[in-house]
Specification:
Elements (H helix, E strand, L loop, with lengths): L1 H101 L2 H18 L5 E5 L6 H7 L4 E5 L6 E6 L4 E6 H15 L6
Parallel strand pairs: 1-2
Antiparallel strand pairs: 1-3, 3-4
Length: 197
């Protein structure tokens, strides 16, 4: 009976040992599977995180570029407005000086010289000379410098000077301070860097 018990005991030990081996193998397989799944999950997580970071980085770059473009546009507009203000101040001051010039004694001399130069261009042909309405008192100065021409007063001449039209020669000569001021203003704007790009 001892022998049967001993056999049964050894059989049970062998079964337990086999069960332990099976359990250890299963544990090892489970652990390997767990590690494999964890590694795959880490790789997927890393790839997803990398993709997310790249997307966020691109969105941030786009946001920065848009913000920079908006700021640049705003600064250009501010610069343009400031330059316009500065230019307008310069133009206003220049126009005041021209108006003051028309009130000086030198203006009579200017009108006479202008009329003589126009007369040289006309070569004795008759013309219509336009003066500013405020230069009515100086009509005789122009008549003396260029006799024989018709003189009219034109409200579109704001500052002063003479505009001549000669139908016989089909020409218009504009020697008004208004035209000269306008041309200088145009040249100033073109050459002063007031145009914002």
């Amino acid at each position: 009976m001892i022998d049967a018990n001993s056999k049964a005991s050894r059989f049970l030990e062998a079964i337990e040992k086999y069960a332990e081996q099976q359990r250890d193998e299963m544990r090892a397989e489970v652990e390997a599977f767990r590690k494999e799944q964890l590694s795959a999950a880490n790789e997927e997580g890393t790839a997803a995180a990398f993709k997310f970071i790249q997307e966020q980085k691109q969105e941030f770059k786009a946001s920065l570029a848009k913000e920079a473009a908006l700021k640049e546009t705003k600064k250009k507009r501010e610069l343009f407005e400031k330059r316009n203000e500065m230019a307008q101040t310069v133009f206003d001051e220049a126009q005041k000086k021209l108006i003051n010039f028309t009130k000086s004694g030198k203006y009579k001399e200017y009108l006479a010289t202008s009329a003589r130069m126009i007369g040289e261009r006309l070569g004795g042909k008759k013309a219509i000379l336009s003066l500013s309405v405020k230069d009515k008192a100086l009509k005789s100065v122009v008549e003396n410098a260029l006799p024989g021409c018709e003189i009219v007063f034109d409200e579109s001449i704001g500052i002063g000077g003479i505009r001549c039209s000669c139908p016989e020669l089909s020409i218009i000569l504009d020697d008004t301070l208004d035209a000269k001021f306008g041309e200088r203003k145009r040249l100033f704007i073109e050459n002063s860097g007031l145009i914002v790009e």
